[in-house]
Amino acid sequence: MPDRVTVPGAAALLRAATATLADAAVPSPRVDAEVLLAHVLGVDRGEVRRLALLDTPVANTVPDGGAPDDGAVTDRFARLVARRVRREPLQHLTGSAAFRHLELAVGPGVFVPRPETEEVAQVAIDAAARAVADRGSAVVVDLCTGSGAIALSVATEVPGAVVHAVELDAAAHGWAARNVETVTSAGAAVVHLVRGDARTALTELDGTADVVVSNPPYVPPGAVPHDPEVADHDPAVALYGLGDDGLEVPRGVTAAAVRLLRPGGLYVMEHAEVQAEAARATAARAGLVDAVTRPDLAGRPRMVVARRPTRARDALRTVTDWDV
Hints:
- It is a single chain.
- The protein has 324 residues and is of the alpha/beta class.
- The chain has two domains: 4-86, no CATH class; 117-316, 3-Layer(aba) Sandwich (Rossmann fold).
- It contains twelve helices and eleven strands.
- It has helices at 10-23, 29-41, 45-54, 70-85, 90-94, 117-135, 149-157, 170-184, 228-231, 236-239, 248-260, 276-286, and strands at residues 4-7, 58-61, 96-99, 102-105, 138-143, 161-167, 190-195, 209-214, 261-270, 289-295, 301-307.
- It has a seven-stranded mixed β-sheet with strand order 7-6-5-8-9-11-10, sandwiched between helices. Strands 1-2 form a two-stranded antiparallel ribbon.
- The longest helix has 19 residues, at 117-135.
- The termini are far apart.
- Residues 1-7, 59-69 and 318-324 have low confidence and may be disordered.
């Protein structure tokens, strides 16, 4: 059994950490302080809040084999708070990121999945579920999978879906492989992870995918993100979409989607708010139809949804707008 220690003053620890983080302009200082203390103690955030409310001593395992005294926990907590002050991403400090119902391993070298992308995943999940209901199975392709967040969400939420995920960057592929191994080994979900170029990968699946989904790099070259957590820590290869408009990579991904989709198959791709019109035009020029812009959870125009024509005359249909 590991040594146990008593850490007094959870409320005081949180108050001090919250003040320190607020002074550093961290956007959610109290939440971050609670998450970091929960991580150090090995409990959930709800338990930290309960301990702080009651202001009772906290007993937990000493992390990292430290000495059995109060300082082992308080010192580690202080070090994590100091790193957060320097604007290291909270998810890098805890080693995990929540996405829908999943807890994914993340760290340097991989894009941290965002809540906004959960709605992109939902569109793919709904389309995959319809395909399963109609035919008993679904083929889903996630291009530029990063940590594997979208691919694993579809695979775990849609029984009968077989998901193929593609990632080119070596570091990101390593994180995705770790997450795929962890999640799929715990259940019946199926994700086939491939390291390769999203534009050319999976030619053996051409014309068979029910859904192609992607959160590709799309930030224009001059639009440096404001948040230090993004600008300094998310890998550039996952942010910048190349070309003057940031859409060079998305154009390649869209062309790949046309190749991969079966007739009538659905395409959904995340983009920046200012790229809605260009993303619809890109889909139309690639040969997709019924292109619309859909909002994310905050109501912002953040994804294009289109489908591959089911017959030749469908290709003549015009791009339509989503009422946002």
